[in-house]
């Protein structure tokens, strides 16, 4: 049964959903079907950014995606922005979210490989409403990484020093503080204590940021986590996941190999969000432990990339 929405979840205050897609029509169809099954779908504006082709090999699948986009129904409104050139995922997300937040106070962001619970939109709008004035919370997500939450932790949500790129949301004033050029990079390179604070959300963060700045990868997500860090802010996570990534089958931009490491069971149901939620040191220790880099990757980063 759908949860009863509070006054803050009235249709005129619901955040729009921005969805980014490229060349995976089958994944996209699953994403749309699960999103359309949400209790609040018919009251939610859907804005879709369809990236342009990177090469001739992608043309057929990109066209299949756009043919499918023309058939979507079930939302309050649907707008499709079809790029004539390939922007890449990073460029698409930064531009698309920025453009959307020029007209809205908050936004919910999905990519074309996310399955959601029927109460996903309710959960996201609830979080955006409850924590709108908490300047130390930069983003919220519906994804619960399989972290070993300590026994006795009393809440349905927790705070962590990392932003999630899977089924997430933010506010215009927070997004405006993002530093996409990573101005503090040199300090992170030379100040060990500063870097130690940065990797409290996982020791994989520094190699990712360094690779981003070296041009080895192109990631908006690591720069968004970095922006959260330099603004002394945190990300909100649920204890039980309301989203599952189906792009870890080797088809995605960031997952060119198949993995089940990030799998999470979907869990529909009410979530209580305390307004005065504070970070829990035991939870953060387990969170960082989950994102610990294996020794062989540390050695590879040092030998291959000098990190």
UniProtKB/TrEMBL annotation:
Spans through the membrane: none
InterPro entries named in the record: Glyco_trans_2-like (IPR001173), Nucleotide-diphossugar_trans (IPR029044)
Start and end residues of each Glycosyltransferase 2-like domain: 17-128
SUPFAM superfamilies (alphabetical): Nucleotide-diphospho-sugar transferases
Full protein name: Glycosyltransferase
Organism: Dyadobacter sandarakinus
């Amino acid at each position: 049964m759908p949860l009863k929405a509070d006054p803050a979840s009235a249709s005129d205050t619901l955040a729009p959903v921005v969805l980014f897609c490229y060349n995976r029509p089958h994944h996209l169809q699953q994403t749309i079907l699960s999103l359309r099954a949400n209790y609040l779908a018919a009251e939610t504006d859907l804005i879709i950014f369809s990236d342009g082709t990177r090469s001739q090999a992608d043309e057929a699948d990109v066209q299949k995606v756009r043919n499918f986009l023309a058939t979507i129904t079930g939302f309050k409104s649907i707008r499709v922005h079809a790029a004539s050139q390939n922007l890449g995922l990073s460029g698409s997300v930064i531009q698309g979210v920025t453009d959307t937040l020029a007209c809205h106070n908050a936004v919910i962001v999905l990519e074309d490989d996310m399955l959601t619970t029927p109460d996903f939109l309710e959960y996201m709008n609830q979080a955006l409403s409850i924590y709108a004035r908490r300047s130390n919370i930069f983003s919220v997500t519906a994804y619960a990484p399989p972290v070993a939450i300590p026994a006795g932790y009393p809440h349905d949500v927790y705070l962590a020093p990392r932003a999630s790129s899977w089924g997430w949301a933010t506010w215009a004033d927070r997004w405006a503080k993002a530093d996409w050029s990573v101005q503090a990079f040199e300090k992170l390179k030379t100040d060990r204590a500063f870097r130690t604070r940065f990797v409290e959300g996982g020791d994989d963060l520094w190699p990712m940021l360094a690779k981003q700045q070296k041009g080895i990868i192109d990631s908006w997500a690591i720069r968004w986590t970095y922006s959260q860090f330099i603004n002394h802010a945190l990300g909100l996570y649920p204890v039980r996941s309301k989203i599952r990534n189906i792009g870890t089958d080797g088809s995605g931009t960031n997952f060119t190999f198949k993995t089940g490491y990030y799998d999470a069971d979907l869990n529909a149901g009410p979530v209580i969000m305390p307004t005065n939620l504070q970070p829990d040191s035991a939870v953060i220790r387990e969170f960082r432990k989950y994102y610990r880099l294996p020794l062989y990757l540390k050695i590879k980063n040092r030998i291959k990339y000098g990190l």
